[in-house]
Design a protein that fits this description.
It is a single chain. This protein has 370 residues and is of the alpha+beta class. Helix 1 packs across helix 8 and helix 2 crosses helix 8. It folds into two domains: 167 residues, FAD/NAD(P)-binding domain (3-Layer(bba) Sandwich); 141 residues, D-Amino Acid Oxidase, Chain A, domain 2, CATH 3.30.9.10. The protein is built from eight helices and 21 strands. Helix 1 links the parallel strand 1 and strand 2. Strands 5, 6, 7, 14, 15, 16, 17, 18 and 19 form a nine-stranded mixed beta sheet that branches. The structure holds flavin-adenine dinucleotide (FAD). Flavin-adenine dinucleotide binds next to helix 1, strand 2, strand 14 and strand 19.
């Protein structure tokens, strides 16, 4: 058996960014265990890649803004070139949703983010295909964009590896060893790996891993969401921002000469590789008919589903477990795990090494203790 300080379960954005930041803080002996043969098979490789800073929850918004400013300006020594397309975002709102959006934009501005409130007409001028859409107004955030998620994830992993982190692929954690209330190792098919700290960055499986350890029963729900890519469309302008109708739960953005679209479905599923539900294509078509009628004729060429893991209050779960010593959570990143990856990893690493982190109490798993 090898003596290891930290075992991180999962090489998605949560695990990779935490490994990267821990290594930068000088932690040696970090082992990342990933059940798949390659990284990014699950949520981190199946998302919409959008970086959005105007979000309702102020605690998540803070991490989103820190994460976004990192992505816009990667350090010179970043190991892989990562394309960030800063086309901005246009968030559409109606009724109370529009009022809430204006409040969120106001808070974002106080935090230094450019977030302008636009009339319906101005939004329609910017993105012509909205001509027949119905909404009360839009928030324009020019510093949002779309990031190359594969390059970003590779960057965290390469950066971590350069600092001595080992990533073992095809290695599934099947149990957590706990002695006298303290983590002592993880069980794998190849035997037990000793660990003083176990970091639960298992995405949709985070609840399962928590149960292995006998940790706090964090209410984490893996929820499926579908994405669709249209055939090529001559009228799509590749410089369009991503457009998110937050009142009607529908978004789209330019992708490969056509559009990537999402009906924002959210059905709870078991952790794993979620099958595509064919009825979701009709669900998307219905939303387009009602809210984006000019797009009614687009044809879909590809679709897939991924999992967003949501806690009961929608907030991330980051921090030491109060029941099991040495067990740490970085989970429940919901629909923000790309945008916040850098700041989530930094917060987690700071809590692990120094026991403190800005705003950490808001993400503590202790909030779910009975
Ligand atoms: C359709 C969709 C669209 C999205 N769009 C956006 C977006 O535009 N912007 C944004 O910021 N976020 C978006 N997200 C959210 C983002 O993708 C997630 O928040 C993020 O990828 C979560 O990362 P993770 O590392 O927690 O989970 P994952 O990427 O799922 O990583 C967890 C890893 O743990 C491994 N693992 C699990 N159990 C074990 C075990 N027992 N042993 C070993 N390894 C294990 C898994 O194999 C997996 O690789 C979207 C998500 C979806 C599904």
């Amino acid at each position: 058996m090898v003596d290891l300080l930290c075992v991180i379960i999962g090489a998605g954005f949560a695990g990779a960014a935490t490994a990267y930041h821990l290594a930068r803080r000088g932690v040696s002996d970090i082992l990342v265990l990933e059940q798949e043969r390659v990284p990014g098979v699950h949520s981190s490789g199946r998302n919409a890649a959008m970086v959005r800073q105007v979000v309702s929850d102020p605690a998540i918004a803070r991490l989103a803004r820190q994460g976004a400013s990192f992505l816009r300006c990667l350090p010179g020594d970043w190991p892989v070139p990562v394309l960030f397309r800063q086309n901005g975002s246009l968030l559409l709102g109606s009724g109370d949703g529009w009022k809430k959006l204006m409040e969120d934009a106001g808070l974002a501005r106080q935090d230094g983010v450019e977030a302008e409130c636009w009339s319906e007409e101005k939004a329609k001028e910017r993105v012509g295909v909205l001509q027949e859409a119905n909404f009360d107004g839009a928030v324009w955030c020019p510093t949002d964009g779309v990031v190359d998620i594969h390059a970003l994830l590779t960057g965290y992993l390469k950066g971590a590896a350069a600092l001595g982190v080992e990533v073992r692929y095809g290695c599934s954690v099947m149990g957590i060893e706990v002695r006298d209330g303290q983590v002592s190792g993880v069980k794998t098919a190849d035997g037990v790996i000793r660990a003083e700290a176990v970091i639960n960055a298992a995405g949709p499986w985070a609840g399962v891993i928590g149960k292995f350890a006998g940790a706090v029963d964090a209410p984490l729900r893996p929820c499926r969401r579908h994405l669709f890519v249209s055939a090529s469309l001559t009228w799509v302008d590749p410089t369009w921002p991503f457009v998110w109708d937050v009142s009607h739960d529908l978004y789209f953005r330019p992708e490969s000469g056509g559009l990537l679209l999402c009906p924002c479905d959210q059905d709870e599923v078991a952790p794993g590789d979620p099958p595509v539900d064919d009825s979701m294509a009709e669900h998307l078509a219905e939303k387009i008919r009602r809210f984006l009628p000019q797009m009614i004729d687009i044809s879909i060429k590809k679709s897939w589903a991924g999992i967003r893991t949501l806690s009961a209050d929608g907030r991330f779960v980051i921090g030491w477990d109060p029941k099991i010593e040495g067990f740490f959570w970085v989970a429940g990143l919901g629909g923000h795990g790309v945008t916040t990856s850098y700041s989530v990893g930094a917060l987690a690493a700071s809590l692990i090494t120094d026991g403190v982190g800005e705003g950490a109490e808001e993400f503590s798993v202790a909030r779910f203790m009975a």
